[in-house]
Amino acid sequence: MAELLIQDQCVTTKDINDLIAGKTVHMRVDAQGDYFDSDDDDDYNEEQLKLFDEACENWKKADFAEKSFDELRADMQDIGNGIYKKVILEGFGELIPEENAKVTLMYSVFFENTSIPIDSTLFQGRQFHFITGAKVPLLLGIYQSVMSMKIQEQAQFIIPCRLLYGEIGAPPRVPPNKDGLLLARVVNVEPACGIDQDAQEYEVKTYESVKKRAEELRVKARNAFNFKKFNFAIRSYHEAVKILENVDTIGEEQDDERNVLVARMLINVGMIYNKQFRPQNACTRFNEAQRYFHKIPNELKGKLLLHKGRSLRNLGDHDRALKCLHDAQKYSNAPEIGQELSQLISEKKKADNEMAQMMQKALNFKNNAATAQKAQTISCVNRDFEKNFKQTIEQFCSNEKITKQMVAENVTKEQRAIMDRILDTEEYKNISLQTMPLENSIKFCLVKNIENTK
């Protein structure tokens, strides 16, 4: 059975041919050496971080972030081997020579409907170069795509999964059976350069060498954090996580150590996001760290749940934050957990009180509106009552034959006051109001004072 070896991102042609021919192939992924080009701290600076942030904003607006790969392929050209191409900016000169040409390249690889790359030269903070025809530290699909380009050309490609990360992928970061979209720009091509010395230095990276590089990145991240260069620290931690997740480990001991390192660095990134008051980003990192939850020690579990609870508190999700902190106490006795719980309970109580006050205000407003409506309705009824009572009195006074007339029954206090107020005027001084109590009601009658009239 042939072996498909992805070594420093390089796939041998013979084994790929076996794979394409449908033969049974064993795939082995070694560490990607592109992350070990330089240990120089100047590889990363604030200007490059700014460029990365600007690129992210542009990627979010790009058409590929919203369209499916099938929709994109409809506007592309099939260049063979399942690869589709669309030229964004025409290059010049001849195609890249197949032998001994030094190619300087910038590229980013995306999965479908995503705007953040799974791999990019921007992660390394510099351009990438290789020598054609030599042992190329590129995945086969990227290499074949780039070889269809010219100097200064910019192009977009869709590459099948078998020429990228394979049908198996590299879980948990790279899912299986994932086609990819490649954005590439050929910055320069230098023909007849011979074998590049840097390319000769690529070698299979063991877990120990990857761990050493990850430790260097961790130190770089901590130093950046101490100087309050938080974005730089996040970038360094992310790169360390990426190389650790993509390296093969030998034995359970190495695997456990790697899992702890990855979880610890993801937690550190989440803590930085909390410090920047970016709780949603922090929760995302903590959720990623929880993929390793059953593989990390209790002390780290407690730390993870503590800081996730803090980010949830900052989001205002007090109930979930409370659960996280209670769970954290199961794994750790750190005093910070109790302090965070006290602050959370205080904030939750305040938020609950504010919510109750807001609900009471809303209820009072509703009740006041109902009361006002009722008062308005009563006012309209009483105005009609007053008008009708005045008309009745006038008719009663104008008819000399009538000395007594019933005018109302079971009136309200307000209506009784209306009748008394009207009769208490000079105009109606000869008219009095009498009550006639009955079994279930009280009737009111107008009576003419005959003596006063004479």
Residue ranges: pLDDT <50 for 5 or more in a row?
Answer: 1-45, 195-204
Which term fits the overall shape?
A: elongated
Strand content: 15-25%
Backbone CA Rg: 41 Å
**SSE run:** EEHEHHEEEEHEHEEHHHHHHHHEHEEH
Largest sheet: 7 strands, antiparallel
N→C terminal distance: 135 Å
Number of strands: 13
What is the overall number of helices? 15
Mean pLDDT: 80
Kindly state the percentage of residues in helix. Answer: 40-55%
Oligomer: single chain
Helix and strand composition category: alpha+beta
Which descriptors apply to this entry?
454 residues; 15 helices
Notes on the protein architecture:
With 454 residues, the protein is α+β, with helices and mostly antiparallel strands. Helix content is 50%, strand content 17%. The protein is built from 15 helices and 13 strands. It is elongated, with a radius of gyration of 41 Å.
Please outline the helices and strands:
Elements: E1 2-7, E2 10-11, H1 13-20, E3 25-29, H2 46-61, H3 69-73, E4 77-80, E5 83-89, E6 102-110, E7 119-120, H4 121-124, E8 128-131, H5 140-146, E9 154-159, E10 180-190, H6 197-200, H7 207-226, H8 230-245, H9 251-275, H10 279-289, H11 298-315, H12 318-331, H13 335-398, E11 404-409, H14 413-423, E12 431-437, E13 442-448, H15 450-453
Parallel strand pairs: 1-3
Antiparallel strand pairs: 1-2, 4-5, 5-9, 6-7, 6-8, 6-10, 9-10, 11-13, 12-13
Helix pairs in contact: 7-8, 7-9, 8-9, 9-10, 9-11, 10-11, 11-12, 11-13, 12-13, 13-14
